[in-house]
Design a protein that fits this description.
single chain; 415 residues; DNA polymerase, domain 1; two-stranded antiparallel ribbon; 1% strand
Length: 415
């Protein structure tokens, strides 16, 4: 194998996996985990028609095959097997071949071995692998907003059904039996939640593919609050502690209901803002949903090397959930169920989004039976592969933007 091409052929499976990840095709890492460099460059279209490559490829492997051809071309241009450098004959080699030795003079004509720089405009691909599709993101935002509003309406309705604490005392709870109530603990929970939301918002602003990722966030958080409406309504639990001071019942005064709902929405559903003094919204905990979901998105879409950042956000989330229980503002089952549903929905959605085969309904794809599968297909059908953890400045300099409109391929000879 000539020249630099040996480097590719001698790649280890770990180097192949690293190359796949760096070139934004990590979906092939698992099926090609044992491939060496030689195996990689010998891939053909027939290989993508068979398992396991056929299960993860949405374009019959054309994108990866084109990248492999580009890899071959790059190394071919660096050191051609017939002694040419970048497509131009090396002066020393040509002199020896023609018998002129060192007396050869470069004449500057096309065959005169002149060192050249060639500018080749490279147009951007017509269709991005990760299209932004802000219209779909707006629909996902409307869905999440409607679910949040519906949640506040449900809370107001359920509040009317909560039995007085003097009639129905709090249910037994193992955590409450072991830990006395700490009055300020719930404020710590809400402060941690606001910190996590703030960190996630800053991180979102710096993401390159923020439209796709925010669309996923809105879909998941909206569905979680929709589920919460159902669980709150079907089973009304008594207050978790005698310290609760629930606002008076309205007994069908819908105008007062509306004012109470608007106050809750304006305050973000937080007790720290004084907007939430209703009871009954226990199963399951909305605070736990936000604490868990923001941490999951922060960790999923931030570089793996920022382990300290992940641990910090995990600690904020865990302390927040512990403070919910320490304040006796939710039963333990409320927090456990909220954590379970949030993590499972997040993992299911992202597993389906990262595997092309799961975006198509089939008899073997049981995940296609979830009620939100059609919406999932609509939002994710044009996203090809795993979304890279890429960042950029949200405000670009115009001069830099103009400079990036033309790409160059530089051919440099050794003469």
């Amino acid at each position: 194998v000539p020249g630099e091409m040996k480097e590719v052929v001698l790649w280890s499976p770990e180097e192949v996996t690293s190359w796949l990840t760096d070139n934004a095709v990590p979906e092939y890492c698992e099926p090609l985990r044992s491939f060496t460099g030689r195996d990689l460059i010998n891939l053909t279209e027939e290989d993508f028609k068979k398992s396991p490559l056929s299960r993860v490829s949405s374009d019959s492997g054309q994108r990866l095959l084109n990248m492999i051809e580009g890899l071959k071309m790059a190394h071919h241009m660096e050191a051609h097997k017939n002694g040419h450098a970048n497509g131009h004959v090396r002066a020393g080699d040509a002199a020896r071949q023609n018998g002129f030795g060192a007396a050869l003079k470069l004449n500057g004509v096309p065959n005169g071995f002149k060192k050249e720089m060639i500018k080749i405009p490279m147009p951007e691909p017509e269709r991005s692998q990760y299209p932004m599709e802000w219209g779909k993101t707006f629909l996902a935002f409307i869905y999440a907003l409607c679910c949040f509003v519906f949640t506040t309406v449900t809370i107001s309705v359920v509040h009317e059904r909560v039995p007085p604490k003097e009639v129905q005392p709090p249910l037994p709870d193992a955590f409450f039996d072991r830990f006395d109530r700490v009055q300020w603990a719930f404020s710590i929970c809400e402060i941690n939640g606001m910190i996590l939301v703030g960190l996630w918002f800053v991180q979102w602003l710096l993401l390159k593919y923020k439209s796709i990722i925010s669309r996923r966030f809105f879909c998941i958080v909206g569905t979680l609050y929709l589920y919460r409406c159902i669980t709150m309504y079907v089973t009304t639990l008594p207050v978790p502690g005698m310290h609760f001071k629930c606002s008076p019942k309205l007994f069908g005064d819908w105008e007062s209901h509306l004012r109470r709902i608007m106050k809750l929405i304006a305050g973000g559903g937080l007790s720290i803002t004084g907007s939430h003094n209703m009871c009954g919204d226990y199963l399951y905990s909305g605070h736990t949903v936000i604490l868990t979901l923001t941490y999951l998105f922060i960790k999923e879409y931030s570089p793996r090397r920022l382990w300290w950042y992940h641990w910090l956000c995990w600690a904020l989330s865990m302390v927040g959930m512990f403070c919910i229980l320490l304040a006796h503002d939710h039963y333990t089952v409320d927090v456990v169920v909220a954590y379970y549903i949030t993590t499972r929905l997040f993992w299911w959605y992202h597993t389906m989004a990262n595997q092309q085969v799961l975006k198509e309904a089939s008899q073997t794809n049981l995940l296609a039976r979830v009620w939100w599968y059609k919406a999932f297909q609509y939002f994710e059908k044009n996203v090809q592969g795993i979304v890279p953890r890429s960042y950029h400045w949200p405000l670009r300099c115009p001069a830099l933007a103009r400079g990036r409109q033309v790409k160059y391929s530089r051919l440099v000879s050794d003469t």
